[in-house]
## 1
Amino acid sequence: MNEKPTKRKGSRAKLRDYFLLNTGKVLNSGTLRYIAGTSEWGRRVRELRNEEGMNIVTHNDRSDLKPGEYLLVDINPIPSFERAISKETRAMVLDRDGFTCQMCGAAAGEAHPYDHGRKTRLHIGHIIDKSMGGTDEPANLRAICSVCNEGASNLTLDRPQAIKLLAQIRRAPTQDQLEILKWIIQKFPNQSINFLSSITLVGGLEQ
Ligand SMILES: [Zn+2]
């Protein structure tokens, strides 16, 4: 790589050209910084992905990539609907869905439950596909992790039922049960307090 970055071309354009020249090849952050000629190179890469829809993936998307590695998968752009969805709608859907994949239950930013090597990154997906007449309304959108988005996780097509969940939790180790307790208290703090005070009251009366 002897090509010296020129001053005339903007850093985003330099990165765009370099990714296109190296489609399907893993690039590292040092190279990209050099090509961009700016410490803002990471922001420029995000712009290529989020604004131009370039299918650039990182270790958050693919477990075969290491931190600091970037890959333009192919020249097909990310579906424009996902880029077209406003920041507000996106934030609203993610918040409504508890920043959790609605297919497998993986939480944003945490290690993926079915692929520990990668951090869960959430996308916005359609419940009823556009090709089947689905709309871009929030009611037809849901948070989906990149694993489920690729169809790699076909483990949980149905939402788990309470009866099955309880059966699973009952046979889990205490440590895991306590993890679940912690998560539930964080998710439902007020209900937890009410519930605890109600059982404390009943206990008190019985003594
Ligand atoms: Zn998922």
## 2
Amino acid sequence: MTTCRICNKPLTDPKSIAVEMGPDCAEKLQRFVSSGAVDANEMARLEESGNPLIERQMRLTRRAIADGRFDRARLFLSVAMQLQTSYSPVAVGA
Ligand SMILES: [Zn+2]
């Protein structure tokens, strides 16, 4: 079963399943991104970092977004970005 990648609730609507997000969370994420907190691409890159510490921060970030706590989400995200900077090797071809 596909669950919302922001709040983890099961998804039933095909459109929501396609984007792995419920409409409420999609709207919140959109608001969070457009508040200038993070570039959507940067966020996707952090989600796929493969670093468990960063993944943990991103889980916290998503939960905060689901709760509408954008201030907390920004804080968690900034830690994830710092981890990314300090731990990841230089990307090949970047
Ligand atoms: Zn959701």
## 3
Amino acid sequence: MLAMNYRGPYRVRAERKAPPQIKHPGDVILRVTRSCICGSDLHLYHGLVPDTRVGMTFGHEFIGEIVEVGSSVKKLKVGDNILVPFNIACGMCSFCKQDLYSNCHESNPEATASGGFFGYAHVAGGYDGGQAEYVRVPYADVSPTIIPPDIHPEDAVLLTDAYPTGYFAAEMGGIKPGDTVVVFGAGPVGMIAAKCAWLFGAGRVIVIDHVEYRLEFVKDFAQCEAYNFRSMRDPVQFLKQQTGWYGADVCIDAVGCDASGSALQTITGKKLMLQAGAATALHWAINSVKKGGIVSIVGVYGPTDNLVPIGNVVNKGITIRANQTPVKRLLPRLIQHIRDGNIEPKKIITHRVPLEEVSDAYHIFSAKLDNCIKTILIPPSAN
Ligand SMILES: NC(=O)c1ccc[n+]([C@@H]2O[C@H](COP(=O)([O-])OP(=O)(O)OC[C@H]3O[C@@H](n4cnc5c(N)ncnc54)[C@H](O)[C@@H]3O)[C@@H](O)[C@H]2O)c1
Ligand SMILES: [Zn+2]
Ligand SMILES: [Zn+2]
């Protein structure tokens, strides 16, 4: 089959590889019809994630048609069209039982923190992902969900990660009616977080980034304010000034370890690797939230050390909430919001690219070329 193949930092290509097989009675094999490239894939592509192995197929956002089912699968059958949350969850461990599906204790042999994710290096279990013609889906009865007939396939593929994660970022913010919410990052996740902040009653939503076309897009998509941090002397001072010098009620970090904007963070986090990525946006979030406010982190950071201003967290009495998104828990609510017309996630899709061109697609998304926001990959066997 054709699959995206990781060859090392900044090098991916579409290559032939053996198709996946059922390894466990709870597996299904999916013929992928659509997959996405995510900001999380960029951390892998940029070589920032430990134990990303050559030969790995990325892709944790995908939908498809079941072509084979393991002998113990009960809820799904050949021919079903399903969306597959990016978390691989067993459904039975004590964490899954608390709806912490992204922290499953069984699906990742290195499960001290996150559970298994599709297409995300061996620190997340080493599962091949869905930027391919076929993919093996373990624990198929737990998280994978039949796509309701009234849900468009492009909305369905965004229900596997980007839309739930934006929503989750807003939910973790504990937004109260009238709150001022600042979202760092105008990528797909930040845009959806900004849009969803209104669903929780925000009174004002401000997005910060430095990519002009994304700022322009989010103003319209999320009906919010959007500012370029390159045009400010100090983003924290700007946000304080915007909020009567108190700070925002809620700050959301939708950037993660690949952040720009601070030479110190970039050199120590991305060049010398003295810390697990650049924590620039997280710094700004902690320093521009008000005393007693909430910082919600969905931006991905590597394990172990980061230079974050923990003293300010303590002295300001900030609550920090963070996790990988437990997609399964949120799906019913998110599908209802689409049906109610509150959000149309597929509006953020700007590029629809044949899987054969995956190398160019990564380059365009990574370098923010061609007004790219969200890219869908279409395998040759999809139609
Ligand atoms: N927690 C989860 O479950 C989960 C799920 C999906 C994605 N993520 C993470 O969310 C983050 C965003 O994902 P995405 O797909 O939107 O990625 P993306 O790369 O498309 O967007 C990130 C945006 O942040 C901007 N940015 C860079 N430095 C900044 C700074 N200092 N301040 C403000 N903006 C800055 C970039 O210009 C870019 O537009 C990534 O870290 C990704 O790994 C987490
Ligand atoms: Zn993703
Ligand atoms: Zn589990």
## 4
Amino acid sequence: MSLFRKETPAEHYPVEKPDAEWRRELPPEAYRVLRQHGTERPGTSPLNAEKRAGTFVCAGCGHPLFDAGTKFESGTGWPSFWAPKETGVGTTTDRSFFMTRTEVHCANCGGHLGHVFPDGPPPTGQRFCMNGVAMRFEPKSG
Ligand SMILES: [Zn+2]
């Protein structure tokens, strides 16, 4: 089952802005994660405890990334999901830190979100390990 399309790092995105503009618009920690591939300290995101119905969207551009129904408690201290929304995210191979990992980014603006690992729960067996600061939660209305 293919949940996301493979991309090359050089791919262009629907939303592209000069780095200076992202730096001006985003809070420093969100800028560090989304635009500089940073990682937030585990357990620091209020989204870890978010259990309401709704949608997790990109903190950079508002693009819908994950439905709350696919969130699970991974015990890692980072918000974790077993599947992204359709057309929500893209992936690239990340060979930094002497590891080969699959990097996950917003399909709309290319902002770095986290990584995906093959040790998640059913039905996909995947664990999307996300930085909470790279996302915003929009509760379902009504
Ligand atoms: Zn985005």
